[in-house]
Specification:
By secondary structure, the protein is an alpha+beta fold. Among the domains are: 73 residues, OB fold (Dihydrolipoamide Acetyltransferase, E2P) (Beta Barrel), CATH 2.40.50; 69 residues, Beta Barrel (OB fold (Dihydrolipoamide Acetyltransferase, E2P)); 99 residues, OB fold (Dihydrolipoamide Acetyltransferase, E2P) (Beta Barrel), CATH 2.40.50.140. Helices cover 29% and strands 28% of the residues. The strands form 5 sheets. A 5-stranded mixed β-barrel has the order 3-4-5-7-6. Strands 10-9-8-11-12 form a 5-stranded antiparallel beta sheet. 22% of the residues are buried.
Length: 402
């Protein structure tokens, strides 16, 4: 029976009429079975290990967050407080710029507090962008703490405050040394002009401006200046252009010939700019001949050579002349070109005459002092007494011998 059943089971049954004939199933790859599950690949095993580690760490954070930590949160706060820096208002602190924005820059000051440098505190000058003040990421600088934002406890820093202190100190030194500085005119009003000196805004009254220019005409020009008042507490910085000009004039000896430009004409004369110094060429010093109308001889913008006649250092005024440079009287009216060509030669003659006049004046003082050993030559030059010149004693000796 068993053999018959086995034989029957092994026979293939013919398909029913009309039913589709099935194809034999394709052989499948045998899968390895380990304890009833598929074997994992190497990558799958690594992912499974990482998932288990993550689950374990998550469970520890939930149930025992301080497990394995050597100190408590209180210990951490105490350590931070003990190493924190002085953040009082007015304190100086070193920091590193790590990010800039349109409104300023964020600074790392090695503290738990956030620090910010506003744009208007970046430098003494007015700038539109933080980079114009030289502030870039990575810059290490010393800042001053000027405020604290109560909302988020952000410290407000300043570079301007430090630069301002240094600028005032520098101005005090320059005033003590009586130094001439250069200031750029950036504004003005009816009383004078505002000039930028050492990064600070100083006031120059019109009474201390050597030229007759208006505030509008002086804008963006650079003026030589001296300090009159430096008061940091009152914020007063007063400057003088006239005093600075007086120092420059000291180098212009009487009789010097300089090149100048006609600035303006007045009924009594012409104002001449001689390299930043404003001088007056009086109508009586234009020519030996009478000048009825100055505009017939000079016009604003004309360039000419003039000679220094005198200067008032205290008032910052210089008197000029072209009359002394005329080869013949009236040349300044008839042939000004000749006057300028002969200017140096005529000035030399003028200086010689001045020197002779001074020598004769000194000789008059020494006339009754023969023991001085000085004498006046026939040319009017004061010099040592010649050894071959007869003295009163030698004359008396000759008379005796005779």
């Amino acid at each position: 029976m068993a053999s018959l059943a086995q034989h029957v089971a092994g026979l293939a049954s013919p398909p029913l009429s009309g039913a589709p004939r099935r194809r034999p199933a394709a052989p499948t790859r045998p899968s390895a079975l380990v304890c009833g599950t598929y074997a994992l690949t190497k990558e799958e095993r690594e992912r499974e290990r990482m998932r288990q580690l993550f689950d374990e760490a998550s469970e520890r954070c939930r149930t025992a967050p301080m497990e394995g930590v050597a100190f408590s949160p209180e210990d951490l706060d105490s350590a931070v407080e003990s190493t924190d820096i002085d953040t009082d208002i007015g304190s100086l602190i070193k920091g590193t710029v790590f990010m800039t924005t349109s409104n300023g820059a964020y600074v790392d000051i090695q503290s738990k507090s956030t620090a910010f440098l506003p744009l208007d505190e970046a430098c003494l000058l007015d700038v539109n962008h933080i980079e114009e003040a030289g502030i870039r990421a990575g810059l290490v600088e010393e800042f001053m703490i000027i405020d604290e934002n109560p909302g988020d406890e952000t410290l407000i820093l300043s570079l301007q405050a430090i630069q301002q202190d240094l600028a005032w100190e520098r101005c005090r030194q320059l005033q003590a040394e009586d130094v001439v500085v250069t200031g750029k005119v950036i504004g003005g009003n009816k009383g004078g002009v505002v000039a930028l000196v050492e990064g600070l805004k100083g006031f120059v009254p019109f009474s201390q401006v050597s030229s007759k220019s208006t505030a509008e005409e002086l804008i963006d020009k650079e003026l030589p200046l001296k300090f009159v008042e430096v008061d940091e507490e009152q914020g007063r910085l007063v400057l003088s252009n006239r005093k600075a000009m007086a120092d420059s004039q000291a180098q212009l000896g009487i009789g010097s010939v300089v090149l100048g430009t006609v600035e303006s004409l007045k009924p009594y004369g012409a104002f001449i700019d001689i390299g930043g110094i404003n001088g007056l060429l009086h109508v009586s010093q234009i020519s030996h001949d009478r000048v009825a109308d100055i505009s017939t001889v000079l016009q604003p913008g004309d360039t000419l050579k003039v000679m220094i006649l005198s200067h008032d250092r205290e008032r910052g005024r210089v008197s000029l002349s072209t009359k002394k440079l005329e080869p013949t009287p009236g040349d300044m009216i008839r042939n000004p070109k000749l006057v300028f060509e002969k200017a140096d030669e005529m000035a030399q003659i003028f200086r010689q005459r001045i020197a002779q006049a001074e020598a004769m004046a000194r000789a008059d003082m020494l006339r009754f002092q023969p023991e001085s050993g000085l004498t006046l030559s026939s040319e009017g030059i004061l010099g040592p007494l010649s050894s071959d010149a007869p003295s009163e004693d030698s004359g008396e000796g000759q008379t005796t011998d005779e």
